Amino acid sequence: MSGKCSPCQIGQIVLITHGREAGQYAVIVGVVDERFVLLADGSRRTFDVPKRKNVQHIQLLDYISSEVRNSIIETGRVTNGKLRYALTKFANQYVTDSKKGEPIHGEGRCN
């Protein structure tokens, strides 16, 4: 893995590392610029009112939800149910992987 991190992508699952929601997972629903992204989870943070978050305060994970990404690219928005489904699908896969002893691989902070 190189020292330079990959750019944040719409539909990518992230782990929030700083702030009130630290330890929770969310989906990138928008990229403001190279420093800030918009996050939503479909329940507390909906697509209509996403959280603007500094990329240094999140951990990028190697999982991109194709359903969320395609929906945003095609229509410009995504349903909150689809966001919740993407996070649940990721959580189920993560729990299965951790039971097998395989840690999840993610990028560090973006600078």
UniProtKB/TrEMBL annotation:
Keywords: Ribonucleoprotein, Ribosomal protein
Keyword Glycosyltransferase in annotation: no
Cited SUPFAM superfamilies: Translation proteins SH3-like domain
InterPro entries the UniProt entry points to: Rib_uL2_dom2, Ribosomal_eL14_KOW, Translation_prot_SH3-like_sf
GO CC term (a single one): ribonucleoprotein complex
Highest taxon of the lineage: Bacteria
Protein's recorded name: Ribosomal protein L14E/L6E/L27E
